Amino acid sequence: MRKGILAVGAMLMLGASMQASADAKICVFDLLGKSGEAYKAMEEWALAAKTWHSDITLLSYQNEAQAQNDFEQGKCDGVYMTSMRARSYNKFAGSVDAIGAVPSYAIAQKAISFALDRRNQRRLNSRIGKQSYEVAGISQIGLAYIFVKDKNMNTIEQIKGKKFAVLAYDEAQKIVVKSLGGQAVLSDISDIAKKFNSGEADIMAAPAYAYKPLELYKGLGNDGAIIQFPAVNMTMDLIIRPEKFSSGFGQHSRAWFINRLNTNFALIQRIEAELPAKYKMNLSNEDRTRYQQILREARIGLTSRGIYDATMMNVLKRARCTVDRTNFECTLGGE
């Protein structure tokens, strides 16, 4: 009798183990599809996941909205997409991309490392209705600089009345453009560059990674410029349904992303260095401070409205002031 019970128990445990190790599908967004760096990184991740007793199938998407929709419809057990869009699943991790909050790669690396730290495990798990979600990784896309069709659009005053392409699903961008007196041209990540290149928009923010594949040189033409002011730091989030994966999978995954950060940042900075020097333009120190002040006020307002996570805003401020103690905001409260 005892042997029979043990045998049944062993079979049940084996069945549970097999279920936890079953094939999982991840929707992966990359503008360049399977040839893009984001997709290639996820191929490395999927290979590593085998050691965590998980077999992963990656599904490639060049349309981010479709990747999210398929995740919502249950066609995928996880989705890899921009943090701005993923913020709806986890505000803490999604707030790493807060407007103007991460002005350098040194700060970006601190922010991502902190967010994925084991001590933040509870903050990386969320529940919306009956569904549970977990942030299983964050990676860097790059600092998004300001692309303008006319190099004379290099001050706050020159932005007033101009058409600024923004991602329609990110309330923060729309609010900031309005506060600057610009006209928001609502876009998606799949068509934002087309609007800039065709002249529907005068200004857009984008990381260096987007320059070649989105042919942004067409929009810049002979008179445009890339203003070297990081309006936002862009990252990718891996969101999973934890019940579809083996126990401890999320922690293994986050550790993998942390270990890969140096490689991730080195790649991004190499791509950034390839931007044509003729387009690069720096702001004066006075204008840089003015922009930072405007974005700071916008972040405080957005946090009070619940768009950004207050804990992450405090962490990002401490990171900024650790890297640059002379920053004007370091003696101010509010974040």
Automatic annotation (TrEMBL):
Q: Where is the signal peptide, in residue numbers?
A: 1-22
Q: Among its keywords, does the record have Magnesium?
A: no
Query: What does the UniProt keyword field contain?
Result: Signal
Q: What InterPro entries would the database entry show?
A: AdeT1/2, TRAP_DctP_sf
Its recorded name reads DUF6091 family protein
Q: Which organism is it from?
A: Acinetobacter corruptisaponis
